[in-house]
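Record type: monomer structure entry
Structure origin: computed from sequence
Chain ID: A
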Amino acid sequence: MTEITDDQLEELKEAFTLFDNVGDEKVDPGQIIQILQSLGLNPLTADIQKVLKDSELDKTRIDFPTFVSIYEQFQKRPTIANHADLMEMFKCFDREGNKLVFGGEFRQVLNNLGDTMTEAEIEFFIGPHEKPDGYVPYEELEKFVMSG
């Protein structure tokens, strides 16, 4: 992996600054995952929590240079899921083979399994794509999720 360019560093700083709600040029540890996601990375919450705890950063506000080192660490990790992986997962819920998943069932899975999501996060992803009959066309949802 190459070093972070000046342009990338500027992008990181811009994203970091958006999450600095206090104005002390630091962010809360709980915001790290959101910043990384806004920059196109998709780490697991458990992985972020482990890094923060192991580095004893889980109880203190994090400055920009420390954030950059965390970003570099997760940038080097392989992507957890790609298009093919997501399509395979959706097929498990597509009992009729019509490229639709039931929104209620999928909400429950997102809320209970793996790297769980909040109700607001789930609604952000599923809500705009859910049809009046309660089904979600998963190819459309996958394009939305993968587009960042």
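Annotation 1: Residues 46 and 135 are 30 Å apart (CA to CA).
Annotation 2: Helices lie at 6-18, 32-38, 45-54, 64-75, 83-93, 103-112, 119-126, 138-146.
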